[in-house]
Amino acid sequence: MLSATNFSQQLQFESNAVDDSMDEGGAAPHAKKMMWSIEFEKVSKSFGSHQVLVDLDLQVRPGEKVTLIGPSGSGKTTVLRLAMTLAKPTRGDIRIFGESILFDADKKGLSAAQESRIRRRCGMVFQQYNLFPHLTVLQNLILAPTTVLRQSKAQAVESAMVYLRMVGLQDKARSYPAQLSGGQQQRIAIARALVMKPEILLLDEITSALDPELAGEVLDVVRRVAHESRVSLLIVTHEMRFAREVSDRIAVFDRGSIIEQGVPEKIFTQPENERTRTFLQSVLDH
Amino acid sequence: MRAVLEYWSVLAHGLWVTVWVSFCIIVGSIPGAVILGALRLSENRAVRLTSTIIIESIRAPSALVLLYWVAYALPLVPGMPRLSPITAAIVVLALDGAAYGAEIVRAGIEAVHRGQFDACHALGLSKIQGFSRVILPQALSQIVPGFGGLARSMIKWTAIVSFIGVQDVMYVANYIRGQTFDTVAVFCVLAALYWLLTILCGVMFRGLEQLLPLNRALRSSRVELNLTSNLVSESVQ
Amino acid sequence: MTWDWAFVIKILPALGIGVWYTVVVTAAASVIALGLGLALAIMESVSKTYGRAFVLFWLELFRGVPSLVLLYFCFYVLPQLGVTVPAIPIGIVVLGVVYAAYCSEVYRGSLITIQGELRDACVALHLRSYTKWRRILVPLMAQRAAPALLNYVLSLFRETAVLFAIGVPVLMGEANDIGYEHFRYLEPYTLAGAIYLAMNLPFLYVLSRFKDKHA
User: Does B21 reach chain C within 8 Å, measured CB to CB?
Assistant: First the structure.
């Protein structure tokens, strides 16, 4: 399954690329014809009069792990919800592997089928796990592969068991979510997202609802995913140590826009922006 | 009382008609209730408004007025069918049940956690797939008890079908009263029969609740919790 | 048969009488339902054993037996006992009593939430039982239960149509009489339906206001 072929090469290539783009102040290097896995172009989002995102530009390379940090209410979760088409931006465009998830070539809205084909390349794990309580763990994992990808049940079960082993919960296949601890539920939720073989995985504060001692087991799973697969990760988290360790790049959010981004070392040791410094101080002191 | 009981076969026949009509209107109201209830939650304002208007216009004039209208006024409108009394009764009461049931379905769906909708979307399920495989099975845990209460009411609604000539248990009771003049006994038997029917209906719905997916899931986790807590208490002893 | 406007004009006054009786019956039965329902809820709260058993019996009876059966019962049995009561009071009392049972449930639900919140305060202030009920619990109960109670009043209004069975000249009864008399059914039943529908509108308006305030 999650093969590590050419993994080190890819990582090398990516970190170089990240450095390049950073040198250009984070602006999108369109000239290089880089295919972004996900790309936000001048995206704004308002709820009523409240503006959550302001002209956001953000690009993620295939296989890149990007973490969004920043004070709560700064719009990080909204970025993930927009990417997952759980919400629509007020302005701007979002592209997944070059294809807009909002418009077709004629700038008209997408049909349900088109949208579903494009968004299938994204998977998401939620703060509240959102497992289906009426289904067993295994049924949770095979529902989407059998209905959306039209896999046979045997095929779906086989692949589900691979991912259950990966998150270390193969013996819980017949349990119901309510029988599991929060940490176990979240690991199942990660497996459920992975069986759909997403190319981009969105992780929305996946440890915030967990007690600290349970958060560790979930983060371990994410570390494995980050190191062993080529999926792009877009992470929103408050776990700074984890962010530093797993990310290729950190983007700092404040009041709906990115105020600073760069490799973790730089953000955590030499932040340029004053607000970044204050924010990091306030979270790292705790 | 004995005089009344001599008419037991007529009474049984009337009871059978009441049971049959009740069964038809309860089952018949389900598809309408699910569809109207789901439409009430549509993202489209026009669809929402239309379904609200349909629901309120069915409920507003009470089943009795609707029943008379369908039985006596509708056939006079050119091109409209003359329904047999029992068909008219079933159509009208099932419609009324669908309108009341729609609110139960709506409330049940609204009670399903928002995150479940998000998860369906994130997994790529279509609206229909998500509704039928994830949302509705969970909503049923709220909807079925509510529908049980409605079904008990619907059995009582059937009492009015005798007005348009359906020979249900109410119709038959009036007939027996005319024959025996034992009003007290007739109506006591009648009340007892309706009461029994509604109790039976309630029991059946409670049985149905046990079969629902979410209830089964929660029950099995509770059983395990009890087992572990028993084990813990035993090991403590 | 085609729609006859002249006939419509002719029967409107009779239907007007039906509307009047419908309003009267609804209002009177609602007063009984709301008042008696409150009394039942208080009784049930004060006497946990007999009061509760009585209210439960009452509720179970009316949950399982159609109001039509109770109406017929009172209408035919009372004269046999030598009590002659006109149809209108019978209709009002039966509907009022049936709906009192439902309303008592609503009151009870709101009472449970209030008592939890305010029990300690009432004890701390040494309020007499009467004062506690009269000045604090009952007003709060009425306020919190209002939307649900109004829903029952609306159901009661819809059910008044059934009173035509014992000869009360509610709108339904008038429409029925007109149809029978003139052998024309289209206009009276259609008009009655439309008028009943229109009479729902004030209820629905107030209920939607309640919902807005709540949300």
Answer: no
